[in-house]
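Lecture notes, unit on protein representations.

Consider one protein chain, 347 amino acids long.
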Amino acid sequence: MKYRLPILIFVLLLTAVGIFLIQPRIESMTSSVVKVNCDRIKQCLRAERAWPSGMEYCPKILVPETVRVRDKDGKWGYAMDIAGCSKDSIITPRFDVAEKFGNNGLAKVSRGGKWGYVNLKAEEVIPLYYDEVGDFDFGLVPVRLSNKWGYFSAQGQIVGAINFDAVSGLWRDGLSAVQVQGKWGFVDPRGDTKIQPDFDKVTEFQKGLAKVEINRRWGVINTTGAFVIEPTFDAIFSTADARLLLVNLDRKYGYYNSDGKEIISPRLVKPIQARYNSGGVQVLLNAAALTTTDSAPVTAASPDVMTNSWYFLNTASEKLRFDEDGKAQFWRNGEWFYISQAGMLLK
């Protein structure tokens, strides 16, 4: 007991000495790291035009450290903001609107009602000449001049021509939707038309398929423009399973797969959950999505309620079918039954 206090004091002294010896090294390391960052930042700022070979890291370094600044006249520009480095303006405040730099090293700016993009060297990659510019997607950005739209690349090159009535601004499966004279089609990143503008409405491509409307009827096309599902439906919806599409016709629902094969003809009064499984297509038998019938119940209460269970459909062991009114029927013990909202089996 009598040695415990001296030992404690000795340990505290050793700890203090250790901290004293280590602290300058930590500070030195920190200063060294900041100095390296500053050197790189200054090197990047001195680089002219595009970044020289071997300096591709510049945008990654400069973007996080660049902040927007506003002068006394309300004009916006950009400056560096990092401890130990110059905070001098890197882009003199001269814009009415200046948004943050993106990961591609470009920022959307506006002056005098015209829009464009500048890079970290204060160069107008996309001239402040356009009435509206969108956001970059797939390395391309939509721009509007008067009433016509087109695309620019991140290198400041016009893609195709600025002659579309509207563009989606989104690229999926290498295609973007464009409108010409009220009709929609698709172009590739070079601006070449890949699917003729023959449609009244379109959606973006997903997994190689896009929904299209002609004369108020919806169908599905692939990336070549060929119909996978003919335009015969009032509506077509995507599902949680990308391989299944929900179709609607005359207020009845059905399912098609992504190859255009009919899984359930449009005869359901309400959509049911469906999915692919190793055994084929399955449906979720959920009483809340089924229609009741006036038939008397087989039993007062069914202990084995057939709700929230998956059953195969359109296979050799089919266990579920639908009558002409779209009401679900369940196969049990050699007979077909309806299922009530309460989950009771009905003749």
